[in-house]
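Protocol step 4 of 6: structure prediction from sequence.
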Amino acid sequence: MRFRELLDFEYGKRLPAEFGGAKIRVTARADRRVLRPGWNGAARDLQMVARNLVRPGMTVWDIGANLGIFSFMAAGCAGARGRVHALEADPKYADLIARTAAGLGASYAPVDVLCAAIDARDGIRSFGISARGHARNRLVAEGTLAGGDLAALRSVVALRGDALLENWRAPDVVKIDVEGAEIVALEGASRLLSEIRPVLYIEIADTNAQAAAEILHAHGYDLFRLEGDGSESPIGTGCFYTIARPR
């Protein structure tokens, strides 16, 4: 099999036993690290977050779900009484999540997926498809042209986190991985942060670190960095492995 064909190939990869051992549909086009044995390459942090934060019966939101790796790990931890809502703007990956979800066993929380992006306002946005791997797909400014690291552009529905709250079960834990769109994701979730107050795991780009911290602090959250051993260290500004806990 040629390397390009290998990247596009879909196959089932089994989750660790602690997350139920289900096979989930993956493709290396999203993240080449899924080709490696085990999950420590592609999802070491996600395993720690699911293990440390998700308990039976919880509701979890996965914003920027990609292949749904965290969705299904969280579903294994939340169990049949829990619920997982996944948001993914790439229709191919949303379809993979839906197909995996349809085959989950009874011990898992139900997982549903909505094909849309997160934003500070509801509307239609431009979504860039990365030429370097679809895990880097992201919202782009209006008028952006394909080229460079963007192989193509698509129009996608974009929704606020507070709009999702009107239709989804209120979350206990929210994971956000939106490739630089952290600020608009937080700006569109004021009610979620002020009233529901879930624990957040959010990957924050260096360019957004201070602004994201200011929003979270204003809503009464303390910030911590997820360390490689699963522990948490207090931090004053955002980082790539940020856990935000309500005071």
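Step 5 (inspection) to follow. The first strand starts at residue 10 and ends at 14.
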